[in-house]
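User: Um, what's this?
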Amino acid sequence: MNTIYSAYGQLTVAADNIHHYGVLAAPNGQIFLDARETVYLASGSELSVAGSGVAVNYGEVDDDNLKWTTDYAKSIIVRHPIR
């Protein structure tokens, strides 16, 4: 089983033009591509918010007990002007 060290984060790329050729991953998190002009996703490029089937406990400790959460919204958002 693979260990996920950076779960539930947000990755934002903001630019006039975004040209993506590789891999962007935010396990169990969000990817936000925000372009003023164009977003180009090359053949074979990958955007992933998958957690690969691995549950990642994420939580907080208060005075009473430990609270775990394992269900977070995942999303990929691409924003650019419509022409």
